[in-house]
């Protein structure tokens, strides 16, 4: 029996948790580097150096590397007890994890419909899962 596919809402919760953790990391970086743009109310809509560094670090370390490791998922996915695997339920490679992260662009530019697809199909696959040949399933 194969593990139960993770649907839209649990994946949304994992992304929400990742977003909060990324914001906390960015705040810490802003404080450490003294990024005044980050704390300026007149800079609304502008991207600060801390935003760029924090987002990049979170994406590469906690999404790409964690997903390709034995953890098989970002901190948000770990908290929600779900994991990313290949079609045959094996661990994905670092290259595939990076490609999956890049494929998020496709899920985003389709007015987020690529993400919503996880709620509409039997296998609970988002567009980036289909493109990369991955699945998100519940952990044992």
Automatic annotation (TrEMBL):
Residues 5-133 form the RDD domain. Keywords: Cell membrane, Membrane, Transmembrane, Transmembrane helix. Its main location: membrane. InterPro entries: Pra-immunoreactive, RDD. It is found in: Cell membrane. The keyword Membrane applies. The chain crosses the membrane at residues 12-33, 53-73, 101-120. It is a multi-pass membrane protein. The keyword Membrane applies. PANTHER family: LMO1584 PROTEIN, PROLINE-RICH ANTIGEN HOMOLOG-RELATED. This is RDD family protein.
């Amino acid at each position: 029996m194969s593990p139960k596919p993770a649907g839209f809402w649990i994946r949304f919760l994992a992304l929400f948790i990742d977003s909060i953790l990324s914001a906390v990391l960015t705040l810490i970086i802003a404080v450490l580097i003294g990024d005044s743009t980050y704390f300026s109310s007149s800079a609304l809509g502008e991207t600060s150096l801390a935003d760029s560094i924090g987002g990049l670090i979170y994406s590469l370390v906690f999404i790409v590397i964690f997903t390709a490791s034995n953890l098989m998922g970002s901190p948000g996915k770990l908290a929600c007890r779900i994991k990313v695997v290949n079609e045959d339920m094996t661990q994905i490679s670092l290259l595939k994890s990076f490609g999956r992260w890049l494929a998020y662009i496709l899920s985003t530019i389709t007015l987020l419909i690529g993400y919503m697809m996880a709620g509409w199909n039997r296998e609970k696959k988002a567009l980036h899962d289909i493109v990369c040949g991955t699945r998100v399933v519940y952990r044992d």
